[in-house]
Amino acid sequence: MDDIYTLSDTQLSKRIGEKLKAIRLKRNITQQSLAEAASISLSSVKKVENGEIGSFDTLLRILRTLGMLESISQLFEEEQLSPSEYYEMVNKAKKQTRKRAVGKLKVNKEESEW
Length: 114
Prior knowledge:
Blueprint: H1 9-26, H2 31-38, H3 42-49, H4 56-65, H5 83-95
C-alpha cells in the first residue's frame, strides 16, 4: 500500500469511495437501500463511491450505516501522557492547592433572638 501522506486529497477520496463501494457490494446492499438507511440521497451515495466526498456528515452517515465507525475511532482516543507530562501535571495541581487562609471571619455582633 502507498504511504497515504504521499497521496493527494483526490486520490484519498477516490480510494475511500472505492473501499466503501466494495464493502457495500460484498454485503449485497444496493445504493438505494444504503441511501435510505443512511437518510441521504442516492446521488450522494454515488458521489461518495466516485470519490466526491462533499460533506463529512454524509461520510459519517455511510460509515455508521455500514457499521464502520471504528475506522475513525482513533480520532476519539485520549492521548496518553508521558511520565514527565504526568509528573508536571501533578506538581502543577499541588502548587495551586491552597495552603492557608488569609481572610478573617466577619462576625455579626448583634444579639440573636434565640
